[in-house]
Amino acid sequence: MRLVFKAEPQPLSVDFARTALLIIDMQRDFLEPGGFGETLGNDVSLLKAAVPPLKVLLDAARQAGMLVIHTREGHRPDLTDAPPTKIERGEPSMRIGAPGPMGRILIRGEPGHDIIPELYPIAGEAVIDKPGKGAFYQTDLQLILKNCHIENLLVCGVTTEVCVNTTVREANDRGYRCIVVSDCCASYFPEFHEMGLKMIKAQGGIFGWVADSEDVVAALATTNVGISRKYAQGGAV
Ligand code: C5J
For residues 31 and 48, is the Cβ–Cβ distance under 8 A? Predict the structure, then answer.
């Protein structure tokens, strides 16, 4: 079963059974009013704009039985997994581990570290806790993808130029075909969002492809076989 949809720089046809939806860091602290991101002076409504199309895409992926994986950026409460060079940046009161409006900033288990309710993972969906910007760095993401026979990633989330871009570059070097869903990603800086997408699809798709959620959802609507989730449960390839 193939998913065929419009994308840039070229239209794509990918094997549904080998495709996963990867949702990067849709965490309360980045997206919600009163969270860490807003405290830093960012306009979180720019990030919130990605939530409705991503919810539609997530529902379509779940309906089709596609493998869905969520990530969260954050650290252990004792910060032993956070490089000092990451902690030392910014105002002392705004640093990783400092008390924030939704608990300690970017610390696992704190309310602000969790995924927003609209996109909350359901049973069976992996949640990858990552200490870095890239989802492959010091996580078991690659092992999960390998065991589920995944070759293609539909990548969404925040922010386009930081954790989405870093993850796409990591994935590209590991041989994955990445399709970044443009309206399901966002940045506090619209120009960074735009450039982040351009950098991915430039030069014949140097890091991957860029597609609109409407086209991906339309392709998913023609698919309802639940194959990749079956593989995840040990089904034959
Ligand atoms: C993410 C960040 N998730 N901007 N983090 O992009 O620090």
Answer: yes
pLDDT bucket at 232, cuts 50 / 70 / 90: low
* Count of Cβ atoms closer than 10 Å to residue 151 Cβ: 14
Q: Quick one: which of 96, 94, 98, 50 has its CA closest to 73? A: 96
**Digit-coded pLDDT (tens) for 11-23:** 999 999 999 999 9
What is the best residue among 22, 36, 94, 163 to mutate for testing ligand 1's pocket, by most ligand atoms within 8 Å of CB?
A: 163
In degrees and rounded to multiples of 5, residue 8 shows phi and psi of: -115, 140
By the 8 A CB rule, do 148 and 15 touch?
Answer: no
CA distance 94 to 98: 6
Check if 165 has its Cβ closer than 6 Å to any atom of ligand 1: no
Tokens at residue 114, please? Answer: 């969790």
Give pTM, 2 decimals: 0.94
Buried b (16+ CB within 10 A) or exposed e, 95-119: bbbbebbbbbbbbbebebbbbbeeb
